[in-house]
Design goal:
By secondary structure, this protein is mainly alpha-helical. The protein is built from two helices and no strands.
């Protein structure tokens, strides 16, 4: 596999995991601020989620590329 294929697999996995992790740990704000949405979270912890998702996506990418390169699962029949 080329590095471009690795990169595409990584990006797809990263976005899927990022959208899975977005709602985790979110708490609604109890204070009412004029002009702010009532469902807006207090803290999003985006940096923490970014780092965790990046590491998990890298691990899953390595596993998937290993499986494809060793023909454990064949993409092309």
């Amino acid at each position: 596999m080329s590095y471009f294929e690795w990169f595409v697999i990584y990006i797809v996995i990263w976005w899927v995991l990022f959208f899975i992790f977005l709602p985790i740990g979110i708490r609604k704000s109890n204070t009412k601020v004029l002009g702010q949405d009532s469902g807006a979270p207090e803290k999003t912890y985006l940096w923490k989620k970014f780092i965790v998702v990046s590491i998990l996506a890298l691990l899953l990418t390595v596993i998937i590329v290993y499986v494809i390169n060793n023909n454990l699962i064949s993409i092309i029949s």
